[in-house]
Specification:
236 residues; alpha/beta; Rossmann fold; eight-stranded mixed beta sheet; 8 helices
């Protein structure tokens, strides 16, 4: 795959490059990711075994989820196209004495050389930041072993999501930097399911991720109109 074919928005990469040094500041711009990480991890743990499994974290950034997967005994690889966050991730893993294979490569490129190599693929808070999410999903499908498990999380394209995730989170509560999200790139569950089906993946569950700004509490629930997590399996 040539550079011209890489599924990336340079503007999105630039955003995360500029904030890379803040990735492990739990009160900084990535506080929300740190706060929801236990929920994301528990969602994954309830649906698959991690110990001794080859796990790929797509769009790993500074390694917030990747490190926890490794701590649970997974043989973990994290990939991202942003160089600065990967540098931070490698250093933080070294400080924590964790063995994680971090690579600066696109998921499509990795799928060309390591098809059917991973037991579990995670792709969280990334699909809404790329020009072609269907291509990412297809590559995730190719990377999974025949009995593999895949996890996605993204934002639903609804008025409620615009109100909560952009107006609320970015401008009113300032939980995220302004301009973090583009509403037009939010993904409706029906779109995600269709892309998964084309990729040979079958969705098994959709669960909403919720936040109460008064109590600063996050939890999982049935409402998928804003943030949601998805779990799927590779079709036989």
């Amino acid at each position: 795959m040539s550079d011209k074919q890489i599924n990336v928005d340079p503007g999105e990469i630039a955003k995360f490059e500029q904030l890379a040094h803040r990735w492990w500041d739990r009160e900084g711009e990535f506080k929300a990711l740190h706060d929801i990480n236990p929920l994301r991890l528990e969602y994954i743990r309830k649906r698959c075994s991690l110990t001794g499994k080859r796990v790929l974290d797509v769009g790993c950034g500074g390694g917030i989820l990747t490190e926890e997967l490794a701590r649970l005994g997974a043989i973990t690889t994290g990939i991202d196209l942003s160089e600065a966050p990967l540098t931070v991730a490698r250093l933080h893993a070294l400080e924590g004495n964790l063995e994680i294979d971090y690579r600066q490569i696109s998921v499509e490129q990795l799928a060309e050389t390591e098809a059917e190599s991973f037991d579990v693929v995670t792709n969280l808070e990334m699909l809404e930041h790329v020009p072609d999410p269907a291509s990412v999903i297809a590559a995730c499908g190719r990377l999974l072993k025949p009995d593999g498990r895949v996890f996605f999380s993204t934002l639903n394209r609804t008025p409620k999501a615009y109100l909560f995730a952009i107006i609320g989170a970015e401008y009113t509560l300032q939980l995220l930097p302004k301009g973090t999200h583009d509403y037009q790139r939010f993904i409706q569950p029906a779109e995600l399911e269709a892309w998964c089906r084309i990729a040979g993946l079958e969705l098994q569950d959709l669960t909403g991720l919720h936040y109460n700004p008064l109590t600063h509490r996050y939890w999982l629930g049935n409402d998928i109109n804003v943030n949601y997590l998805a779990y799927g399996t590779k079709m036989e």
